[in-house]
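W.,

You were right to be curious about this one. When I first looked at the sequence I had no strong expectations either way, so I just let the prediction run and decided to look at it fresh. Below is the sequence, 275 residues in total, followed by the output.
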Amino acid sequence: MIKMNGSPLVMGILNINSDSFYSNSRINSVSHFQTKFNQMIEDGADIIDIGACSTRPGSQYITENEEWDRLLPMLKSIKGICPDITISIDTFRSEIVKKTFDLIGPFIVNDISCSIDDHKMFETVGRLGLEYIGMHKRGTPNSMQLNCDYNDIINDIREFFIDSIEKAKQSGITKFIIDPGFGFSKNIDQNYKLINNLESLKIQVEEQRYYPILIGISRKSMLYKPLNSTPADVLHATSALNLLALTKGADIIRVHDVKEAKEIVKIYDKLKNNI
């Protein structure tokens, strides 16, 4: 699966729904999905993240059956054709994880609820031997932005992940990736404080090795609202903040625009190698 070899990785986003906050990322047919999938590979994506259930603030969860009905034809269309690309599936449901594994084999589970919304998730991922991305949030899409009160946001989120990683390890999960959850249960200022203090979320696995951190800020409201703009018009702002996040310790950047993100990684590597 993924290899952290010193250079940050780029995860491309494929949304198989009609409710994503960024309309240009919405996919509504198998042919459209295949075109976007192949373009991301051509642009250099290290991971492609496929999600069928919108989880943006204010959205309504679709049913598990609806989620699988959307995923199934897309997964069938790429099964076995690109063995070198790592797939992640954006889902908080353990049954979707099991069905996907039965269809395509190993992949990365990208769970926005860190097993809170489905208490069978850790056990399922551990039993199947999959890599796992756990994200911090509070509440549901309808309530999460009412849950932005913290004693100390950096310490509270760090403690959340220390506890979650321990529970994941007890379930047999050996590869855990931290997602701080930008835009989920955080206001705009809290998102920027989180970026500025990203190093504080580095949790040690063993001597000189830490759990990887994934950053998902692409075209989000923390960018377009301060600029009085729209998701479609904040590619430059996304790039700027992703570069800052890399200097603060991010290992994976999750983006709608793979080609531009790969360019950012190249610039970051130049900076890092010429201190």
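Here's what jumped out at me. The chain is about 40% helix and 15% strand. And, maybe more interesting for your project: The chain has a mean pLDDT of 91.

Coffee later to discuss?

I.
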